[in-house]
Amino acid sequence: MAISGILTSQNHYNQRASGSWPTSVYVFVVAATQKTIFGYGISNAGIRYSMTNLVSNTGVVSTDTAGVGTVRSSLAAAGYGGDKAIFGYGNSGSRTSLTNLVSNTGVVASDTAGVGTARSDLAAAGYGSSGQAIFGYGFSDAGIQSMTNLVSNTGVVGNDVTGVGTARYLPAATGYGGDKAIFGYGYSNDGAVSLTNKVSNTGVVASDTAGVGTARHSLAAAGYGSDKALFGYGNNGGLYQSITNLVSNTGVVSTDTAGVGTARGTLAAAGYGGDKAIFGYGSTGTPVSLTNLVSNTGVVGNDVTGVGTVRSALAAAGFSLT
């Protein structure tokens, strides 16, 4: 879920700064994205795609939209600029750092030359009051990484930032608390982990927080309820999971919640409808196209018959304020 905060006007700012406004009046207007886009991925036969599937503000998934940009899998996506999205990095047969911007109407742009270390199996999330994003962790030709790349509110990707926290790949990430983000879980040199790393509203990644819940990788995460989030599904020791872990608006991760829906990994998730979320696609050993909707209280719904091409190792992000 992408959230943006915008000063209502310079005059309002001046009133607030001078103390002429009551302290109970807020100067930020907060808006949450209404739609979602799933994109890219790989088939059971190893065919990579660039197609996308839009999700309405009521959680209805559309049929395939012809792909734009380099076909690839194991990429990441996040909202930026308050109402747009970005797909980045991934594996096109070799690891890449290219990106594709998504407009506030869900139109995917052609490739933008990559910035930063080419890698796959990373995660991304939005943060900040003006709509920034962050890509983090992953697997490069040099091995497991903890580096990050910040994205401006105009979709410009920054150079590598030295990593903080345990290097790992196949984690998940999402925004929480209105303007912060969290990376969680993944696969390190020591195996699957459940630790998390919080991201401040200025994009600073914190050191490891001890893990809560089942250690796993290949999971997904999304925001819900306007300021909370959840991690869901994944793989632990070769066993696919359907469990979820809720995240409070202060970034506290809860213990496992019994799973709902088909256990799977390498799926994607994002917010929709302003305060709800959707998990979609993934692999149970073979790719699937089913989805699970999440209510604004974090309750995961049963499987919904899939729409669009069956695939896994894709990415998803929220977009559009309408």
Q: Which stretches are poorly predicted, pLDDT < 50 over at least 5 residues?
A: 1-30
Q: Which structural class is indicated by helix and strand composition?
A: mainly beta
Largest sheet, in brief, is: 3 strands, antiparallel
What is the total number of structural domains? 1
Tell me what you see in this structure.
By secondary structure, the protein is an all-beta fold. It has a single domain, classed as Kelch-type beta propeller (Neuraminidase), CATH 2.120.10. Helix content is 3%, strand content 42%. It has one helix and 20 strands. The strands form seven sheets. Strands 4-3-20 form a three-stranded antiparallel β-sheet, with no helix packed on it. Strands 5-6-7 form a three-stranded antiparallel β-sheet, with no helix packed on it. β8 and β9 form a beta hairpin. The two termini are 13 Å apart.
How are the SSEs ordered, and which strands pair?
Elements: E1 3-7, H1 10-18, E2 28-32, E3 35-42, E4 48-55, E5 76-80, E6 84-91, E7 95-102, E8 123-127, E9 132-140, E10 143-151, E11 172-176, E12 180-188, E13 191-199, E14 220-224, E15 228-236, E16 239-247, E17 268-272, E18 276-280, E19 291-294, E20 315-319
Antiparallel strand pairs: 1-2, 3-4, 3-20, 5-6, 6-7, 8-9, 9-10, 11-12, 12-13, 14-15, 15-16, 17-18, 18-19
